[in-house]
């Protein structure tokens, strides 16, 4: 039993540390907040809140595994949400078009997914075809998508959606929120794609050494476009969840999610330099962040305080990762090894 | 003992059960050239890393200039005058020659402001010490590999090196450049510097060595005065057997042309290249670095578009615009530089081997066949004698030569019709070379057409049934199988390569890669 555990710990240090942290936080907040923390309401509300930014975190994670980043996830989701909102409020087809609510809802969902995916494809093209560094490309599109949203809505919210649309965000079969099922399935699918398909493997290889992946006959450009398209698609799902939960779409919704998405990805062990990290570990990162969120809410921290704490956490994790890496490298002799450190890619 | 600059006592280092170093003791005398030789994975690089303080041994102590250290750190090591020139040289590619030579010294002196005049002066002084001149203002990424090496040496000298470790410094150099480097190393010795020199090329070792220490499986076989050893006894001590390169004889009977290059040109890189190959042909291409051979290989692989000419495989003209196209058309390339162009350092051996064959290990359902991937890797590890506990190990934990074998395995696994190998045995020990040659020859015997780019003449003479020589972007000579078997073959190749004169300036190859 103990040897099994040791083996497990050695196999995946990140996972072990994350699980340890998760249990620690549950016990800590559980003992301070007691029933308030373990209440059905609190747990169910976590179940509603998790999926919302989980999809953004997932989108961020896969972009980071390529060695890039997608800063446009939230802006892209808002843009998609607004477009879907126009369909739902009848601004596109007119109120008397005779379409049933259900048809409208289906069209709206498709619109959200398509718009967000196209937003991702555009990122991918900028990065792959025009060699714009991901951080700049997506910073640009973040501003651009945000601009589109602001311009067409004139900064106002799009409100008033049909009930069947709202039920996406509110219904809870068997007591578990519907959005949580979606979250669960989507993560399982993406995790599977990442480890079991040639596409996923290419993402990791590219993230580690893009020249070597080019020489291996991997279609780098196509793969990057597909990856950012997938990130866009996931932002589209986030858009549907967000808008259906709050019954509106607005250009600046979920601003704080960008930081949180990066935080969760890094916390989950995704290496910002690319090539390393597991999507499944990101789930635990998400759970940890959500527990902190809920606890802070129960402690009645202000949003500004939360933001400060999360920002600080992000920096802290990066520093800790750096130290672990360096310490590991010294004992494993990776750092100075000429046979290990690739020359700077030109 | 006086006269010893370094004494290492009972050094051991294990990595998860692998004895990288097993109770090794060694002395380096002041002013000697001490060569370390041994098969891939025998512990040479690990020894260097321990002496530079980059890794801490499990056991043992190190005495430098009479000061004994139980755990040596890099700063102490540098203070004692130890400098290491790693294979990647760790230079700053965008900084100038002068800056690269002088910067570490300025930092070491605690200079807050950079005085360009001083930087240049230091650089000039150090270059003068090795009797070289160079354009001080040229950025590092625009000078040749050989000159970069000299810059790294000058940087070490500027830091008052007393003991210089060079781990396989000659792998990326052409023969002429190697001669120049060895001459400099000998001159440095005359000036009192101790040099520890690692190389798999034994002729280099005999040229410079005073003492030769042989490693095997992490243990020291012994220290020898280089005069005591012959080529054969050295190899015998290293490998425990007698090693001889197998000579390839083509047995295929199908004489149809399966691969043809017709008038292929890219001005400034290569001009009017014509090649015809049958099944089982092994064509050598040789020439100095910058003669166009590497550019030609990249071009065939879809990375350096040619301006005119045709490539024909099995009678069909193919248009190859990317490595993907090349692999699909049945043409694979083992690239020249394993660190930048081939390795995925943190990935496992099995993922490194499969990376160019992802489509063929994908099932109909679109999933990767991880079991098959693993099995392929296990087979390759056995075939090429890759030294590793298992195929899940990350390649970064392999020794240099074993990394190279892993990359060879990757390309062989694509099962191409035409396999281009650009420097396949760089950093590979002599016994493993035999393994690799046997594999290359057996693939050829099974019908693969192989292009072997190399500047090791014994390698070309053992494996090729024709050799093409390039110089200054042109094909300048061609030796047939009969000519290769004559005793003057090596000399003829040599003189064709250098063209008799030394006015030729090699250019830096350009890789026109996407993304
Ligand atoms: N960081 C590491 N983790 C695990 N094993 C390692 C690590 N570094 C080295 N080894 C192992 O230690 C042994 C000695 O490696 P080393 O790099 O010293 O060999 P070498 O003599 O330099 O070989 P080569 O001629 O191929 O460069 C090898 O078996 C290698 O796999
Ligand atoms: Mg080595």
Automatic annotation (TrEMBL), chain B:
It comes from the Bacteria. Keywords: ATP-binding, Cell membrane, Membrane, Nucleotide-binding, Repeat, Sugar transport, Translocase, Transport. PROSITE patterns: ABC_TRANSPORTER_2. Pfam families: ABC_tran. Residues 6-242, 252-497 form the ABC transporter domain. GO terms for molecular function: ATP binding; ATP hydrolysis activity. The keyword Membrane applies. SMART domains: AAA (SM00382). This is Lipase. The lineage of its organism: Bacteria, Bacillati, Chloroflexota, Anaerolineae, Anaerolineales.
């Amino acid at each position: 039993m103990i040897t099994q555990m040791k083996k497990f710990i050695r196999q995946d240090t990140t996972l072990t540390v994350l699980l340890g942290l998760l249990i620690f936080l549950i016990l800590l907040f559980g003992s301070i907040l007691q029933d308030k923390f373990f209440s059905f309401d609190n747990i169910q509300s976590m179940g509603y809140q998790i999926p919302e930014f989980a999809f953004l975190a997932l989108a961020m994670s896969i972009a980071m595994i390529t060695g890039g980043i997608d800063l446009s996830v939230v802006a892209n989701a808002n843009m998609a949400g607004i477009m879907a909102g126009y369909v739902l409020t009848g601004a596109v087809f007119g109120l008397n078009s005779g379409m049933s609510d259900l048809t409208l809802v289906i069209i709206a969902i498709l619109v959200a997914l398509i718009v967000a995916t196209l937003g991702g494809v555009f990122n991918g093209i900028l990065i792959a075809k025009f060699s714009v560094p991901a951080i700049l490309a997506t910073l640009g599109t973040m501003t651009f998508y945000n601009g589109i949203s602001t311009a067409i809505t004139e900064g106002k919210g799009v409100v008033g959606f049909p009930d069947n649309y709202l039920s996406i965000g509110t219904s809870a079969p068997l007591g578990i929120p519907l959005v949580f099922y979606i979250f669960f399935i989507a993560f399982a699918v993406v995790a599977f794609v990442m480890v079991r398909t040639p596409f996923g493997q290419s993402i990791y290889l590219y993230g580690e050494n893009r020249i070597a992946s080019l020489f291996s006959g991997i279609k780098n450009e196509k793969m990057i476009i597909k990856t950012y398209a997938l990130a866009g698609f996931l932002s589209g799902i986030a858009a549907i969840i967000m808008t259906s939960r709050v019954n509106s779409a607005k250009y600046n919704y979920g601003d704080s999610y960008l930081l949180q998405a990066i935080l969760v990805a890094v916390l989950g062990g995704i290496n910002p330099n690319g090539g390393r990290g597991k999507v499944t570990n990101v789930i635990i990162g998400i759970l940890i962040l959500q527990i902190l969120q809920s606890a802070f809410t129960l402690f009645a921290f202000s949003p500004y305080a939360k933001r400060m704490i999360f920002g600080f956490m992000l920096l802290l994790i990066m520093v800790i990762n750096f130290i672990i890496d360096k310490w590991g490298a010294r004992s494993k002799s990776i750092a100075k090894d000429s046979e290990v450190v690739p020359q700077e890619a030109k | 003992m006086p006269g010893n600059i370094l004494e290492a006592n009972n050094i051991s280092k294990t990595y998860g059960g692998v004895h990288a170093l097993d109770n090794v003791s060694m002395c380096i005398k002041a002013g000697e050239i001490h060569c370390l030789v041994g098969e891939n994975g025998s512990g040479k690089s690990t020894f260097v890393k321990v002496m530079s303080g980059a890794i801490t041994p499990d056991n043992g102590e190190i005495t430098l200039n009479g000061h004994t250290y139980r755990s040596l750190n890099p700063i102490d090591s540098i203070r004692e005058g130890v400098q290491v020139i790693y294979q990647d040289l760790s230079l700053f590619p965008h900084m100038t020659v002068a800056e690269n030579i002088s910067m570490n010294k300025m930092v070491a002196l605690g200079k807050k402001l950079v005085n360009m005049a001083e930087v240049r002066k230091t650089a000039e002084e150090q270059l003068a010490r090795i009797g070289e001149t160079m354009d001080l203002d040229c950025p590092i990424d625009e000078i040749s590999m050989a000159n970069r090496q000299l810059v790294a040496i000058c940087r070490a000298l500027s830091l008052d090196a007393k003991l210089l470790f060079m781990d396989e410094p000659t792998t990326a150099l052409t023969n002429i450049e190697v001669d120049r480097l060895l001459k400099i190393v000998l001159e440095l010795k005359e000036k009192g510097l101790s040099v520890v020199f690692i190389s798999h090329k034994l002729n280099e070792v005999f040229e410079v060595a005073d003492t030769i220490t042989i490693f095997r499986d992490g243990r020291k076989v012994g220290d020898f005065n280089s005069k005591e050893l012959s080529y054969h006894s050295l190899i015998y001590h290293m490998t425990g057997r007698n090693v001889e390169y197998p000579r390839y004889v083509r047995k295929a009977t199908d004489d149809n042309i399966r691969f043809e290059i017709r008038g292929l040109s890219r001005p400034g890189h290569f001009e009017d290249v014509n090649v015809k190959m049958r099944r089982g042909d092994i064509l050598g291409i040789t020439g100095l670095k910058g003669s166009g051979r590497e550019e030609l290989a990249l071009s065939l692989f879809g990375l350096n578009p040619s301006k005119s000419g045709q490539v024909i495989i099995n009678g069909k003209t193919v248009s190859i615009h990317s490595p993907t196209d090349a692999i699909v058309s049945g043409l694979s390339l083992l690239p020249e530089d394993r660190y930048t162009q081939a390795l995925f350092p943190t990935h496992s051996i099995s993922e490194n081997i499969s990376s160019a064959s992802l489509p063929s290990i994908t099932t109909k359902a679109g999933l990767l066949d991880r079991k098959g991937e693993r099995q392929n890797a296990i087979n390759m590890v056995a075939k090429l004698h890759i030294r590793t506990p298992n195929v899940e190990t990350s390649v970064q934990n392999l020794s240099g030569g074993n990394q190279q074998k892993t990359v060879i395995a990757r390309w062989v696994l694509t099962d191409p019709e035409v396999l281009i190998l650009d420097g396949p045995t760089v950093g590979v020990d002599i016994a493993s070379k035999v393994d690799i040659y046997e594999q290359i020859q057996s693939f050829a015997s099974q019908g693969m057409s192989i292009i072997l780019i190399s500047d090791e003449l014994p390698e070309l003479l053992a494996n090729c049934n024709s050799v093409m020589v390039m110089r200054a972007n042109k094909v300048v000579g061609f030796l047939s199988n009969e000519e290769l078997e004559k005793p003057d073959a090596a000399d003829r190749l040599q003189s064709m390569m250098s063209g008799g004169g030394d006015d030729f300036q090699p250019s830096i190859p350009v890789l026109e890669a996407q993304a």
